[in-house]
## 1
Amino acid sequence: MSNGFTIWLTGHSGAGKSTLAHALEKELTSRHISTEVLDGDIVRTNLSQGLTFSPEDRNINVQRIGFVASLLSKHGVGVIVSAISPYRTARESVRKSIPGFVEVYVNCPVEECERRDVKGLYKKARNGEIPSFTGINDPYEPPLNPEVEVRTDLESLQESTRKIICFLEQQNLIGEIK
Amino acid sequence: MSNGFTIWLTGHSGAGKSTLAHALEKELTSRHISTEVLDGDIVRTNLSQGLTFSPEDRNINVQRIGFVASLLSKHGVGVIVSAISPYRTARESVRKSIPGFVEVYVNCPVEECERRDVKGLYKKARNGEIPSFTGINDPYEPPLNPEVEVRTDLESLQESTRKIICFLEQQNLIGEIK
């Protein structure tokens, strides 16, 4: 059984996690690495129907994504998780169960995320239509010591992708391209 | 990406699903096939805390196991699911989403399962301590057309295992050993 890994993208809604996930997927697939993107929203519909956005339920959702990521990583898959996963303790808990865990802080100031507001969610949150929205009326706890930090407000998508791929190469989680 | 498969063991509590799952795991592993057992009870604690044993919740649990099995199968893993999964529609629904789906009816008359009562659950169900227990006060819908049927009350563990392995070989889901 070959070793897989999990790139765990954490950050605010609108920080660019999904975009980055798909750029990474493209890059890894081109290197013939079996890759799976676990998107927080999609996983929610498949594994966590009925869960709310309370701190407890958010953590349960993160743990379920972690359970699936650990199974896939164990079987050699390069997993890319894209999930706000706002609480530090929940992320630290999944870290322990996943071989080759790479926490990536997708850092973009919440003001910039709100300015972009790709899905119109910040507007809804400001209007009180979403009761527990991370960054508006629910906390986001940034990683203290992530394996990689990218700044999507300052870097290009290519630069951010490159940083993560370089880290995987340095750790021998993927082979280098000569 | 190589093709995986999912052996879905369905049958009453005490029919011998877990025993068969581990015999299959041993056999597949000896053939260098990346194998994962998804046990209904274990999955329940990781993915389905809070779900009851109502028909609706049982089906949600089956669908979650199916979601994980489909991801693993897609990435070449030989998945073995061991779960009562009592309802036909739920099993038919997961069948559609899983590549290389092999439904195995682990058939053992419920009277024999109750006689064995390995976990003491039938006694509890008879005492009214378990409100919805398959085969006692909750229905089990046997597969109408399973890929394989084993009779754990009539066959040895080795015979039942062999039947399933032969089917996988015939379908080219695994290689034959000459």
## 2
Amino acid sequence: MSKTILIVHAHPDPSALNSALKDVAVEQLQALGHRVLVSDLYAMGWKAVFDEHDFLDRKDVSRVSFVDESGHAYATGTQAPDIAAEQEKLAMADAVIFQFPLWWFGAPAILKGWIDRVFAYGLAYGYQGAGNTYRYGEGGLAGKIALVSTTVGGPAIDYRPRGINGPLDELLFPLTHGALFFAGMTVLPTHAVYEVGRLREGSAADMFEHWRGRIRRLFLDDPISFRKQNGGDYPDRHVLHDAVAPGRIGLTAHVASTEEGDREPIFASPRVSAEQRT
Amino acid sequence: MSKTILIVHAHPDPSALNSALKDVAVEQLQALGHRVLVSDLYAMGWKAVFDEHDFLDRKDVSRVSFVDESGHAYATGTQAPDIAAEQEKLAMADAVIFQFPLWWFGAPAILKGWIDRVFAYGLAYGYQGAGNTYRYGEGGLAGKIALVSTTVGGPAIDYRPRGINGPLDELLFPLTHGALFFAGMTVLPTHAVYEVGRLREGSAADMFEHWRGRIRRLFLDDPISFRKQNGGDYPDRHVLHDAVAPGRIGLTAHVASTEEGDREPIFASPRVSAEQRT
């Protein structure tokens, strides 16, 4: 069945690897009969900075409460038009692909600003005006697939479980878990290409073929098994039950292991890197 | 001895808690005889988006390589003037305080864009044109103190070692370790105020007094004990030596425990929250 996919793309150069990955995704999705929407943030001149000008009918002009004004503007249809337009694309989308270069171990500011501005109160948090009742696995974006695809300058070895940068899945946890899963999305394992400066023709061909495979399996691949807030693992909605991942602390405790009790990372990212290909 | 402190501030409302924390820091530092520089990013209309217009003399106009163009522009004095101005403040600063509201478990886009644009190749990475030789504890910003101060909407319980959001220190690791320590800075434990919507007069007074204490101890407090790349823990500059934090994986393995072998988080953030104060 034909689906709608939104690609949020964050690189200004049409000849860059990120743009090539975006183009390959568009081609592959269209070949499968899907409808593709692209938010090319640099080409659109996307406003990255969330500020009071995004609220066209202020609830309280004496102060700037982003939570209150975002909720009011979203509920009353008085958000800045560019925010509303992105939310309309999101509403139509069955899946969203985020394509960006990893800068300082996170998304470029233009993409962070897309999250900051588009993920409004009432939609991506404070769903149904019910505080934190529906976060992490439920909420305004529930039922939608999310796939993060990033290019990394450094070698994969730096991102190993004991690599000096830390594992990529933990570095991207604020995005994958804290924004996308928080808002209800079903998040696939991150697609990462390492050592982009060293890609050679042969390995680039393999890498693109791997990426085409990820795109073909967009609605088939198993997601990261982030624990749902209301699935029983957090009886008070705040802290893991003692019997869940006993003794584990930190970010990875919020991902269910294939075998409970594993201490290995459990994001199961299919990694592609120059290192592995050579 | 009088020092120079740069405060990078990311909230548009002068009456907001973040602005009050910034004002308190300015007052306290000036009372101590220090010189204070403030980069009030919203007030300055800071350009968040790093793009090709930031390079006034392109090395290669046929493509946009941020690494190559950033290195060329930094080396030849052809960066956008607003970037160069921030780097001049950085060069003068003995310490830098980052003050921002936590949005989607990270810095607002305007502050991420400050890092993206100001942390140039040759300064914050690729120091001395030597690739990754001097990162993590050495580099262009070595000798400078960094203090991250953030306000959090949610309750502290959500950020406990097994709290549903994950520990704040791990969520901010891409900033504290991946950007500030990477560039050589000495990073203090993060200052966080939780449940900012529920601050009452009494607890706010306590919170500000605690913050004044942090400011007074800016050059005295022990930093987070991130492991230096070239201190012996990473013999190949990529992966932890087997004998260091044996068996530990993930982000927290890169912070030395007070007692080696501890499994508890070791960032030692002095936390202040409404929860703890009531």
